[in-house]
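It is worth pausing here to work through a concrete case rather than discussing structure prediction in the abstract. The textbook approach is simple: state the sequence, then state the predicted structure, then interpret. We follow exactly that order.
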Amino acid sequence: MVYNNCLEVNKIMYGDYLRGKLDEIKAYDIYNDIKSITDSAEDKPTVFIGASESYKLPFDIKYGIESIFVHDILTNNYLARETINFRIYPYFRMLGLPLAEADDVLYTKCLAMANDMPSYPKDGYIKENNEAIVVKLGDIEEIVPVTDISLGSGNIRAKMDTFNLSDNILNVSGWAILENAPVNRVKKKLLITKRDTGEKYIYNCGNVSRRDVVNKLGLYDDFEYCGYFGYINTEKFENGNYTVQLILDLYGQLYSTDIFENMEINIK
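Step two, the predicted structure:
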């Protein structure tokens, strides 16, 4: 029994060692590919989209610490103030591979661009635009259809500052606070409902620093990232009339707000 337990523990430790080495190889590979197409890696933010596939390890090892290129996106990043892959940046710095960090707004903007890109290591998995260097590690759903959704109520203060549909892009911004909740765990989302069919979709907003709100309302500094930002390619939807509602997510519990807008999509 002792032998079998030690064997399993050694397998897990060996698996962690292999993942670490494979992550290091992948990081150098990605960094060299970035440097091969641009000289702006240390100045222009790099946005990582999606998660890589888990490594296939010997002995059918299923436990241990997941790859840095997988873990955060699969756990949906509990911290609401950084991009979903935020831990990758210090990992690259630790290896002596400096990359400029992106914020959540830039991450949100680049999601649509990454839709048509192949994933690492295929040719074209890195692209550069005027604002960022985009590295696609894997596919990610920007807009998720939902069939069964339950919305709770809470003490919420919220505002939508911008709601603008132009050239098939919906821009949304504002701020929202769920009272008596750890603010850096509260995520802002949009619930988009097609009026005639009732089809529902959820979109994850980017998280924005709003010091102006904190100062005006006399809030704690922890509320700084109460802002939200959405940049949605509406070509993903069928033509028709939709309602767009701001909702909040705390540890998977969804909360309703009274922030509603109407949207008509008419794509030629």
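Step three, interpretation. The mean pLDDT is 84. Residues 2-37 form the longest helix (36 residues).
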